[in-house]
Amino acid sequence: MSTAAVVPSAAAAQDFSAGGPNWYMDAMKIAPIHDAGITGEGVTIAVLDGGLYLDALTLQGADIEVPDFDGCPDPLDYAPTQYTQLQHGTAVTSLIVGNGTSESGEGPRGIAPDVHILYYGMLQGAANEARDCEAFYSDVLDDAVARGADIVTMSGGYSFLHQEISQPTYDSVTKALQAGVVVIGALPNNDSTSVHVLNTTNGVLNVASVDATAAPAKKKYSEENMTDPNTDVVAPGIQVAGIGFNDTWGMTAWNGNSAAAPLVAGLVALGMQKWPDATPEQLMQSLIRNTGSTPHELEWSATFGHGVVNATRFIAEDPTQYPDESPLFTDEQFPTFDEVYNPPSPTPTPEPVERPQSQLPMVLVSLALVVLLALAALAGVIILIVFVVKRSRRVPDDS
Question: Other C-beta atoms within 10 Å of 181: how many?
Fold first, then answer.
């Protein structure tokens, strides 16, 4: 497919990197949206990641809940100096709700600072080590949906999830979509040589990253543009604000699709607050139709997906004008569209039939009474005969 319509020409002509690691705030023009009172209030985002340093300055004042979830260790149970375990999840969360401060002064700014965060440490464990959480993605997703999550986003952890390409994952995503939950996954940072469960699951919004000039991420071992057949949208994710990556809790910059996914999650939350009557399916339609700097026909490429997200257009356009149908389904992946949106009606349980009570017990009772009466009558006759016989023996003989 042609990519001409999805590359944001205006954004590509402007370099936002001079704004420092928080360049994404200017590039996405978030300040005017916040000034209009659209901050994600009333929306819940479930973040699935590693350890979390809740005492980071940029997270102070944020509405963060860490559920007591069986199967995963407490993601808060780390020393502040365990940066390897804490940096990724803390940086991801700060891109959603960060207040802009850190130990070095400026810190990450959150795109949706007033959302409620449900934080799950399902990806705990140091890099290249086994995951500490025994629960699977399907378990955590089910719990997040049950607790009222509107959006569920996960960045990374793919090497730990290959064993989860299974029906339970598809079933959980199906239930989440049926409950009106938006499910987001970051694409792998390496070129797409492996298959990961979320990125090949229908209905999931897959996110890749671009830099401050809207140039796509590069392959890990070359300068070629990253491509992935599962790309849906791209968002800022290269040299964006992070925290904990330089073994301090001051701000630094970091790279990856892991950073782009939470920014998209926060943007969807802004859209949910602005357009509360829109369905999640209509919001996804709006997100992919309003990419780039100018209106365009719906197109796709393996590098940009449907294009670079455009926060201004996404917030300004009424999503209810678009089809109430998810655009995130292909014929080659599962669950199928019909499995999610047109499931077979459950077979109704037949009403119990009240059986007429048998008349046999009454018949037996009546028969027993008849027999008893007959026996009583017979006994009476016998007694009478015996009495008569005895009387007759006592009559005197007249001869």
Answer: 21
Helix ranges restricted to H, 147-230: 167-178
Residue 243's beta-bridge partner residues? 251
Structural element, H or E, at residue 235: strand 233-236
pTM value is 0.84
Give dist(CA 240, CA 62) in Å, integer. Answer: 20
Over residues 89-97, the mean pLDDT reads 98
In angstroms, rounded to a whole number, what is the distance separating the alpha carbons of residues 263 and 381? 106
Looking up tokens 């999931």 gives: 204
**Partners of 120 in the beta sheet?**
48
Residue 331 phi, psi dihedral angles, 5° rounding: -70, -20
321 contacts: CB under 8 Å, gap ≥ 6: none
Which residue shows structure tokens 């803390």? 90
- Whether 56 and 90 have beta carbons less than 8 Å apart is answered as yes
Taking only the tens place, the pLDDT of each residue in 346-383 is 766 666 655 555 554 555 555 556 556 666 666 665 65
